[in-house]
Amino acid sequence: MNARNNPFSSRHVESLAYQYPGISVYDIMARLKGLNYRAAIVGPEGSGKTTLMETIGAGLQKEGFQTLYVRFDEENKKLRKDLFKYNPDKLTTDHAFLVDGAEQLSWLAWKFLCLYTKKAGAVIITSHAQAQRIRMIPTLLNTTTSPELLYSLVLKLVGEKHMISGREISRLFESHHGNIRLALRELYDIWSDK
User: What's the predicted TM-score (pTM) here?
Assistant: First the structure.
């Protein structure tokens, strides 16, 4: 099967909405407002933190915020020039900073980021763990995964006609230690061989 038709291609996977049992995006946005738009999304790799942050970013834009996304990972642990797009003296409550992978930052970079964004109207971060320095920001949501969540996402991608067995879903979930992103990547490879 070519990449374009593969239901697990990145364009299909990235179009999936964030799902969390028992709480709606509306409830998450209301909680965020109650936290004065400063919050952390905490959870393991592949548990939907980035997807949730993107959903929140879209919600903040609808509320009139100007959003800036900054991503840190193993290869990129330094503050980048795009973060300094706005002069900190000209930041207003209309600006929202969405920082993905905050656990990658050194203590000094974290402090600088906090100072830089202090006038912003919203600061949302994602982190794999609730590190001591990140505890200064209240937790909005702890993301988790389950075989049922993986099953639900796969169902949305392939439909019932081509649904993968519950046993295979459980195997994928276990072999990737609950990392939904990696499980979906393996399904992409499996589907490519069809």
Answer: 0.84
